[in-house]
Predict the structure.
Amino acid sequence: MTWAASNLLMQQPRNLPTLFQANLPPHSIHSGERLEPYRLDGILPEVALFPKDEEQVASLLSICHAEALAVVPWGGGTR
């Protein structure tokens, strides 16, 4: 499952992929041009994350909660 995160508060611009680097390997963090497949209704996420287990999911959700980030689970891209 993929997790897409966007900054809801937009108080300060920040590099979202760097928030997750301590919790995921680089190949599990997509940003920039690699996000196009995750565009939904014209909205492009700022980052797409690919956790491999429950521990990583829990860690990512904790970060998103602390940073007031929206999380959208993505399961294969069907609508």
Observations:
- Helices lie at 16-19, 54-66.
